[in-house]
Every structure is written in structure tokens, then in C-alpha cells.
Amino acid sequence: MTTSLPPATNTAWLWLSQASACSTTNQRDAGPGTRGAGFARCGAGVGIRLWACRNGLPERLREKGCGMRKAIFWDFDGTLTDGQPTWRRCLVLALGESASKYGVIEDKLRPFLANGFPWHPDGDQTLTGEAFWECLTAKFAEAYEAQGVPSLLVEEAAGRVREVVQDERLYRVRPEAPGALMACAFKGYKNYILTNNFPEWEGLLDRLKLRHYFAGVVNSGTAGVCKPDTRIFRRAEEAANFPARIWMVGDNPVADIQGAKNAGWGAIHITKPGVPHSGADYTVQSLEEIPKIL
């Protein structure tokens, strides 16, 4: 429900001019996740409490004072999912029964897919739409040819990879993901996706029944810039209407964590025990831990 702002003559609006209602906190005092030189943090001013009560705001907002804009950007593969197809697997599946006939296995494909994608240092991150797929299809064809796959089959299978990677049955969403997303929303955060992915990726989000958890998506495959480039983080800030507090949750220590820290965001690294510290503000092993530390 959208609550309209009261007129300036309303006595409940006194909190706007009362120093006791809001104080300015700089980024140093605010801690990780807070952007900018200052943001409004409300105290115990009578005006805001009266306004909140009159307009029926939730108790959690009345307790915390005026609501600053807060956003969490979630990576997808390896963050919201703990099972997803690698590109190597997609190439094997695209060949079907011919994969075993020609001895095409994931390990043999690894050297051909280790670089050259838009999000790799040597890739062209400006590729979007059909240009994205033209580049990748050529890489897939080269990998197949190196395995001795006949040219006619190479062309067919390389084109089929695009279909395979969009198959929602190949993805396993973490079972705790919906609960974590709802808990973050309850705490006043808007959830967004920030992913390095193929152009049609948002369709996959729909088929996985996850769309309704998110206020928006920033995808490198349509944005033409990839994590960890700071420009995509700035694009994300704009998409979220420049929130005062902003977090990145991801599994990649470079693309997600270093990228977020370089952009001035808070960073939460989801990983497995024993992995070296990535420089994130927090490290977790389950998405369930995230609402507790916000």
C-alpha cells in the first residue's frame, strides 16, 4: 500500500524541521552497506512517531524511524542456486547421444571455455543480444571441432547450447532462498538481481517462479557491461533509485565481492567452509544467515 505524504500544514509533519527527529550519520559511522556522505537516521522525535501512527506504517518502521531506501543485489548462479549447469555441461547436453560417440566430455572442453566470454578479462563485455550469441556460438563450434565432431553436427549443436542453458530443469534454487528473500524484504530492503548472464536470462527467472521476489534485474547480457566493472554497479544503483544502504550478495570473490567493495557497497560472500577470506564484510555458508546480520 502506498502512503501519501501529509501536507506541510499537518502538525504530524513537524518531524521534517525537528533536529530531534533525524540526525545525519556519515559513512564511517554507518558501517558497511551505507553509501554517500550522509543519510537520515531517525531518532525518537515525537513528530515522526505521530506521522507513522496516523498513516498506519508497520511497527518495524515506527520503531526504526523514517525509512531510508535500502537495497540488496543478489548474484544468481552459485548464490541463489546451488546447482546450475556449467557451459561445459551445456555443450555435452547439446550434442545428445553424439557426445559419447565422439568422446566429448566436460574435462576435454574446459580449455576451450576458460576465457573469451564477455565477463572474462579478455572478453568483450559490450556484447548483448544476438551479438552475444554469435560470439559464444563461434567458441562452442571451435570446442566441438577440436574434439573431432563433424562440421554439420558442430553447427547444429553449437546453436542448440542457447536452448539448453535456458532449461529451468537444470537449475536448483537453494531451498532457503525464498525465506531469506522474504525476511530481507520484511526488514525494509528491496531485493534486486545483479548477474553476469545471457541476454534472455530474465525468462529463466520467470520459469523458476522467482520473479515476484525482486524489484528489478540488472543483467550484463542486456546492460553491455559486466561485474566487477564499477559501471554495472553504478547502473544497479540507478535501477534501485540510489539507495542509501546497499549490499551485494555473491559467491564470486572477484566479480561480486571485489566489484562491490570497489563500488563502495557492503559485500556478503556466500561460500563453503575453509575458503580463504575474500575481503567481504561478512562471510556466510547459508542464505538464512543474511537477514540476521543486516
Q: How many helices in DSSP terms? A: 14
* CATH level 1 name of the largest domain: Alpha Beta
Helix content: 25-40%
List SSEs in N-to-C order.
EHEHHEEHHHHHEHEHEHHEHEEH
Q: Please tell me the total number of domains.
A: 3
Radius of gyration: 23 Å
Structural class: alpha/beta
The CATH topology assignment of the largest domain is Rossmann fold
By DSSP, the count of extended strands is 10
Labels describing this entry:
disordered N terminus, 294 residues, Rossmann fold, six-stranded parallel beta sheet, alpha/beta
Task: Explain what this protein looks like in three dimensions.
The protein has helices at residues 27-30, 46-54, 59-64, 87-95, 98-101, 106-109, 129-146, 151-164, 177-186, 201-207, 220-223, 230-239, 253-262, 290-293; strands at residues 22-25, 39-42, 70-74, 81-83, 172-173, 189-195, 216-219, 245-250, 266-270, 282-284. The chain has 294 residues and is of the alpha/beta class. It has three domains: 11-64, no CATH class; 70-82 and 173-293, Rossmann fold (3-Layer(aba) Sandwich); 86-164. The strands form three sheets. A six-stranded parallel β-sheet has the order 7-6-3-8-9-10, sandwiched between helices. Strands 1-2 form a two-stranded antiparallel ribbon. Strand 8 (245-250), helix 13 and strand 9 form a beta-alpha-beta unit. The radius of gyration is 23 Å and the shape is elongated. Residues 1-29 and 37-66 have low confidence and may be disordered.
